[in-house]
Amino acid sequence: MNFRLPKLYRWMHRVESWWRRRTGAPELLAATTPAVPPAPPMTSRLERIVLTEGVADTLFQDYSDHRRSARGNEEIGWTLLGVRQGDEAIALAAIPAGAARDASTVHVQFNADAQAVASRILRQKDKRLQIVGVVHTHPGNLTHPSNGDYAGDSVWVAGLRDREAVFGIGTAVADLQFSWYALAVGDAGYRPLPTRVDAGPDLAACLRPLWHSLETHAADLEKLCRLFANVQFDQADGGLAVRIGLGEPQQGLRLLLKAGDVRYYLDRGGELIAVEPRETKLDRAVFLILAELAKDQPAESRETYVTMT
Amino acid sequence: MDFRTVTGEERQKLINALRGNAEDSLAILMDRRDTSFLGSASSEDISDDEVISAIQSVPCHY
User: Which of A18, A51, A137, A271 has a beta carbon 3.0–4.6 Å from A56's, enabling a disulfide?
Assistant: First the structure.
C-alpha cells in the first residue's frame, strides 16, 4: 500500500540512526540519490556560511538550555533565515523548532506552522529574507548529516530558489559544537562549509517573548494570512498584536494574543471597540465578527462592548 | 586605479538603485571584493509564498 511507504521509510531511518549511534556500525541503508530535476546553471556555489553573533549565540544558548530541559535527550533544531550574497549565505535569524515539534532521540520535525508565521513577522521589514539553511542536533557524536537527512534534504533543496542550502549539525560530546555543510541539487553528498561569525543581531530574538502565543495560534494565524491580503503583526503590551485590514481605509480588526488569551477589537479610525465573539478558536472568531459586521450594525461609541450570542 | 564609463544598462540600474535608496530606503548592494555595484535590494525581494512553501516542506531530520 503506497500510502504507508513514507511512514515505513521514516521508521527504517530511525532504526538505522539508533543502531548506528549505539554500535558505531556502518550505514545499514545505502544512500540513495532521489530523482531530481536537472539543476540550472548556478552563478556560484556556496563557499561559506556567515552567522551573525546573535544567531550564533542563539544556537549555543538554545542548545544548552534544551539539554537541561525535560526533553533534553531529544534532537532539536532551527530554521535559518537570511540572505544569499554571491558565494556566501548570511544567517540573520534563527527560528526555533517550536514546543510542538515532533522529536525523539533520533529525529526532529519542526513545527512548520509556527515557523511560517514567524517568517511572515520577520519578513514584514525585509522581503529579502529567505531560508538559507536548517540546523539540527545529534545526541551522539555524529557530526555529519545522516543518510536519512540526505534522503530528505536532497529532494528539498531542489525546490529552493538557489537549489542549494546550508545544513548545520549540533553535537555535545565534550563541548557544544556545530558543524556546517552545503548541499546543492544533484550533489552526491554534503560538502563541509567554512564558517565565519560577523557582528549583528539575531532578528528572530524579538519573537521569543511572543513565541508561546504565536505557536499556540500558529495554524489559525497562517490561515488568516492566506485569506486576507492585509495582515500585519506587531508587539504590543507584552503580547502579539495582529491587525487585519478591512478594505475601508482606517478600518481593521485587531487581535491581541497574550499568554493564551485572545482579545478582539474593532478599529475604526483609531477608535477601538472591544468585541467578545464567544468563540475559542481564533479563525472562527474572526469570521463570526466579520459576519456580524456584515449585518451593517455599526457600533455606537468607544464604550460600546459588542457581545455576540 | 581604474576609471571607466559605465554602460547604458549599468547606468540605468545604478540610477534605479539610487532612487530606490533615496525614496524607499532600499539597500544598494556592493561586491565586498572590489566594491563594485551589484544591484539594488529590491531585485532580491522574495515572495511570502516562496518562503512559506520552503519552510513547510523542510523534511524530518534524523
Answer: A51
Q: Tell me how far apart the alpha carbons of residues A232 and B28 are, in angstroms, rounded to a whole number.
A: 26
Cα separations in angstroms, A112 against A164, A188, A244:
20, 27, 22
The strand pair at A271-276 and A261-268 is best described as antiparallel
ipTM for this prediction: 0.79
B62 vs A160: CB contact, 8 Å cut-off? no
Q: Which residues neighbour A286 within 8 Å (Cβ) at sequence distance 6 or greater?
A: A224, A244, A253, A255, A264, A277
Cβ distance A136 to B61 less than 8 Å, yes or no, reads yes
C-alpha cell belonging to residue B28: 544598494
Render pLDDT for A192-227 as a digit per residue (tens, 0 to 9): 999 999 999 999 999 999 999 999 999 999 999 999
Which pLDDT score is estimated for B3? Answer: 80
Is residue B30 within 8 angstroms of chain A, CB to CB? no
What CA–CA distance (Å, rounded) separates A308 from A279? 9
**What single-letter amino acid sits at A13?**
H
Min CA distance, A26 vs chain B (Å)?
16
pLDDT digits (tens, 9 = 90+) for B15-42: 878 887 887 777 787 776 777 787 776 5
